[in-house]
Amino acid sequence: MFPLPVGDIVQTLQSDRERKFTTFLRLIFGAGMAETLQGSKTFTLFAPTERAFSTMSATDVAKLVEDKRAAREMVLRHLLAGTLYTAGMRYYQIRNSMLDEKILTFSKQGGKVKVNNVPISTQNIPSTNGVIHVIESLL
């Protein structure tokens, strides 16, 4: 049984006490996608943590946030239409992200689920309009 959702996808990311999603939230707002992710359509988000952005310099991150098109592409690479919990990922080995040319590949090994060979560190965080899976690397 899953815990009750805190709110929509954006509210759920904002409610994280450890503030693991600060940079990704900046990208969501910079891309103008906050309203979309707060709407009634359902999504699956592979949310990268601050650790995922640690390979980028602060200047590169700032440029990415300021460039609306690049920020939008980054967010869309981590987003699927519809709700996909890890239990259903065995039925979908390959799915298209919302960025047309970006394919997401799922695999399970020893009970661990990976997307594009990136382990999902926290899975199945519910929101009122989808589900969030936490990853420690960019897709």
From TrEMBL:
PROSITE patterns: FAS1
Naturally occurring in which organism (per UniProt): Callosobruchus maculatus
Gene3D superfamilies: FAS1 domain
Any one GO BP annotation for this protein: cell adhesion
Transmembrane regions: none
PANTHER family: MUCIN-5AC-RELATED, PERIOSTIN-RELATED
Gene Ontology molecular functions: cell adhesion molecule binding
Residue ranges of every copy of the FAS1 domain listed in the record: 8-139
GO cellular component, one term: extracellular matrix
The protein's name: FAS1 domain-containing protein
